[in-house]
Amino acid sequence: MKIVITNRKFETSDKLKNTIERKMAKLDRFFPDEVTAGVTLSTRGKVARVEITIFYKGTVFRTEEENKEIVVALYDAVDTLERQIRKNRTRLQKQLKDSAFRYEEVEDELPEESIEIGKIKEFPLTEMTPEDAVVQMNLSSHNFYLFKNSENGKTCAVYVRDGGEYGLLIPEKD
After folding, report:
1. Is the pTM of this model over 0.70?
2. How many CA atoms are closer than 13 Å to the CA of 142, on its beta-carbon side?
3. Going by C-beta distance under 8 Å and a sequence separation of 6 or more, which residues neighbour residue 156?
């Protein structure tokens, strides 16, 4: 697996880069060599944050962890990602066409949880700007809002991120 390290308000030492590569090697058994993993390191006050994102065959594997120590946050993030993969192994294999997802048997398999959709809601998809969508989201007391972007014509979503800032999701193809 190829690893791309991005720093935000953070300096990465060679020792830390080696630790990242060594710890991320734990995930090599799940993905082919040509897959790229993005590791973002940042700080917020005295708290270190590690975000790991892996795109593989249309599926996004993502986690973020915070801790006072960057190495602890890294270890927690890799462990969380591995746990997510093992927990959803069967579903992922079906989604990624059985043989496409490499997986070595692990003795401590986690039981797969069933997914139950508790509510289905239909609503009109309104055309508006992302700023207007944030206002609508805040008015509806939800933490996300789906809308048709009047700037590009795509179906988008705005959401509240940790820390109170807003995020905008824009599909590559719509």
Report:
1. no
2. 12
3. 130, 133, 146, 147, 148, 149, 168, 169, 170, 171
Residue 122 lies in a domain: no
9 or 63, which is more confident = 63
Number of domain units in the chain = 2
Is pLDDT above 60 for 84?
Answer: yes
Owning domain of residue 85: 2-100
Average confidence (pLDDT) over 28-53: 89
Which amino acid is present at 74? Answer: L
Of the CA atoms within 13 Å of residue 35, those in its CB half-sphere come to 22
Amino acid at the residue 98 = D
3-state secondary structure labels for all residues of 68-88: CCHHHHHHHHHHHHHHHHHHC
Average pLDDT of every residue of the chain: 84
Residue 107 lies in a domain: no
